[in-house]
Design brief:
The protein has 123 residues and is mainly beta. Helices cover 0% and strands 50% of the residues. The protein contains no helices and 11 strands. Strands 2, 4, 5, 6, 9, 10 and 11 form a 7-stranded mixed beta sheet that branches. A hairpin with a 6-residue loop joins strand 5 and strand 6. It is globular and about 40 Å long. The mean pLDDT is 96.
Length: 123
Amino acid sequence: QVQLAESGGGLVQAGGSLRLSCVASGRTFSRYTMGWFRQAPGKEREFVASITYTGSVTYYADSVKGRFTISRDNAKNTVYLQMRSLKPEDTAVYYCAGRILGTTTNPSLYDVWGQGTQVTVSS
């Protein structure tokens, strides 16, 4: 079983950038589809981006398309989320998640989760 740990969150002004990292323990990381989700206070957890186990295909929520980039380095057991042109509405706890099967935007279908990292965007 893979275990996940996010880092890289923080406080940033609107228009700024952050890069989140998610490091996985375990030898099978390269077999996992990985996703990033976020949850703002009082809201449901929502899909942000996902990447297939080879890294060849990525998917994005419409709200972040063109501003966020998901990538992975299987040699380092790490998946990244580069966030640019941040907006106050991007403020949330960001989670990385993994699943053995193909990509999906449904958080309930992911098998493993990190503990989350807070991203706060000030206006």
